[in-house]
Every structure is written in structure tokens, then in C-alpha cells.
Amino acid sequence: MTAIPTPAPVVPGRLEQMSTRIAFFIAGFGIAAWAPLVPYAKARAELNEGTLGLLLLCLGGGSIIAMPVAGALASRYGCRRVLSAGTVLICLALPMLATVSSIPLLMAGLFLFGAGLGTVDSTVNLQAVIVERASGKTMMSGFHGLFSLGGIVGAAGVSGLLGLGFSPLQATLVVIVIMALALFKAAPHWLPYGSESAGPPFAIPHGVVLFIGGLCFIVFLAEGAVLDWSAVFLSAERGLDEAYAGLGYAAFALTMTAGRLTGDRIVRRLGAARVIVTGGALAAAGIFLATLSPAWAMSLLGYALVGAGCSNIVPVLYTAVGKQTVMPEHIAVPAITTLGYAGILAGPAVIGFIAHGSSLATAFLLIGGLLAAVAVSGKILRV
């Protein structure tokens, strides 16, 4: 097969910055739309926590497989084509997740959904590294802030539609229309190339890239726990109505968005290392509050603290991987994204197994301990 000629690199400017923000919004909006649907899918298919955790492995598997492939494809064919394809995959998968009740079809839908999310997440972070470097400014927290803004709109919006009496399918059709409009607006200004660095299409992460990826895994594991299990926890353990159980993730996304939209200034003022130390400690405290407090309102406050603490850790880590010279960026960025999203997508499956064997509260407390370890790492990692 003859390779498509690589277009002359476009120097990223304001339009490319805008399109990067929209791509992050699409990623956050798409994944958060799934959070309020989890209890419905669980009830429709009559799943217990262990079976739900096993099914979520399909979501994580699709994402993890897609991420390194997306990095290689973006390097060869450009971010624009790969981001567009990933967005279409998300739109195709959502109606399945809102309607099917058989386990095989749920597995297929979750795998397709994960593949779309993994494609968009990996590629948009590669574009963000390129665009931030070209600007000469600290922009990564602001970019990731649009992911969190998408999370607010997706989780709270779908929860609101369900509360108004919309069926899960009707709610997801609204989501698809919004994503299609965002794609139409942003796609012309996504980069037609993926990276100017040389190197093989795939490589095993090593050195500082592996360490950064491990930290991303823990932070995204916490986010995945809130995404996939907060609604279940609030409805089953705190008695909150299923239609409003998605507010746990909405509270998390709200404070994460606020932290990231102001994060560029915060990082410049505190320094990257202090952001990791303080953020990890705050997120750990939030997990403990959300899990141990008997009142659902205090659990919402705990999830909000987790969002505030985690908000700027990952952007700082992505900026760091864009500066390292151990691995080419079109390999390093998908590598840490893959390791990170193994936490957000595959990690919650492990939470399901722990919850089935002991309790969901125990699983959340283990995550709190890992976030405390992230805080300690801030004094080790040179960023």
C-alpha cells in the first residue's frame, strides 16, 4: 500500500489552539455521557458488580489497543484524519450502550466506545504537545480544562435529560448531535500531520516516560473510579435516585474544570512539583471523605475535592513528557496516554472485582492510598 504523502507542516496558531480545545471537549463530553448510563445498563442487563467490572474490561481493552495505533496513524496520516475517525466511533457506540441488554452486544459496544475514546485521547494529547510548544506558552492545563468542561456538560446534561424523562437512547441522540456539530467546527483546523520527530511507530516506554505513565495511571484510575462507580456507589450505598446519581461525576468534573481553566497560572505560581504534591494529597483526602461519610451530600463534596486535587497533575505530566528526550514524542505521548487510560478504563474493572470480593468502599479507600503515593512522588520527579 502506498503511503499518503505527508502534507507540509502547518505552524499551529490561534485556529489550531481553538480546534485543540474543541477536541478535548469532545473527548470529555463523550466519556462523561456514559457515566449516568452505567446504572441503567447494569439494571437492564441484570449485572452484579463483578460482571459489570468484567464488561468494563472491554471498554478498557478497546481503548488501550487503539491508543498506540492512533499514535502511529497520526504520525503517518496526521491528527485531523485520526481525530475525526475516533469521534465517529464514539458516536456509533453510544446508541448501543443506551439500548442493548445482551452481554455480547454490550461487550461489542463497550469495545467500540473504548476504541473511539482511546483514538481521540491519544491523538489530541499529541496535537496539544505540538501546539503548546509552538506557542511558547504554558497551555496544557487550559487544554485539559476543556476535557473537564465536556465532562460537566456530558454528565450533568445527560443526568438532567434522564431526570426530565428522556430515555437513555433519546439522551444519547442529543449527545451525538452536539458531537457532530463540534466535529464540523474543529476538524478543518486539526493538524494535518502528527509529529515532526523521527522514530519507530511503537516502542515500550522506559525511563522517565515509564515513571510518568505510572503516575498518570494512578490519577486516571481515580478519575475512572468516579466515572464508572460513583453513580453506582451513590445509588446503592447512599440511597440517591438513579436519575441523579451522575451528580457525583458532575461534582468531580466541575472542580476539575475550574482547577484546569485556572491551572496555567497555578502551575506558574506554585511550580510543577508542588502542584503534584498538593494535588495528590487533596485528592486522597477527597476519596476518603466521599467513601467514609454516611451522607450523600458529603460524598459529593469528597468527589469535588478529588477533582480539584487531580486537576493539574496530568497536564503537568504531559508538559514534562513533551520536554523529555528519552523517546520521540509521537511514541512517548501515546505511551503515557495508554498507561494512564489503563487506569481510567481498565482500572475500574479491577475495582469491580474488589467490590465483588469485599466492598466498593474498600476499593475506593485503596485508590486513596495510591493518590497519597502520587503526592510523595512530586518530591522525586524532576518537572
Features:
383 residues; mainly alpha; Growth Hormone, Chain: A; 79% helix
Give an overview in words.
This protein is mainly alpha-helical. It has helices at 14-34, 38-44, 49-77, 79-99, 103-135, 140-163, 168-186, 207-237, 247-261, 263-270, 272-292, 296-310, 313-323, 329-357, 360-377. Helix 4 (79-99) packs antiparallel against helix 5. The chain is globular and about 50 Å long. The N and C termini lie far apart (42 Å).
Present the secondary structure layout.
Layout: H1 14-34, H2 38-44, H3 49-77, H4 79-99, H5 103-135, H6 140-163, H7 168-186, H8 207-237, H9 247-261, H10 263-270, H11 272-292, H12 296-310, H13 313-323, H14 329-357, H15 360-377
InterPro entries: MFS (IPR011701), MFS_dom (IPR020846), MFS_trans_sf (IPR036259), MFS_Transporter (IPR051788)
Protein name: MFS transporter
Pfam families: MFS_1
Brief summary of the model shown:
The chain has 15 helices and no strands.
Question: What sort of overall outline do the alpha carbons produce when their principal axes are compared?
Answer: globular
State the CATH class: Mainly Alpha
Percent strand = under 5%
List unreliable stretches of 5+ residues: none
The count of β-strands is 0
Membrane topology: Multi-pass membrane protein
Subcellular location: Membrane
Main location: membrane
Transmembrane segments: 22-41, 53-75, 82-103, 143-163, 169-187, 208-231, 275-296, 302-321, 333-354, 360-381
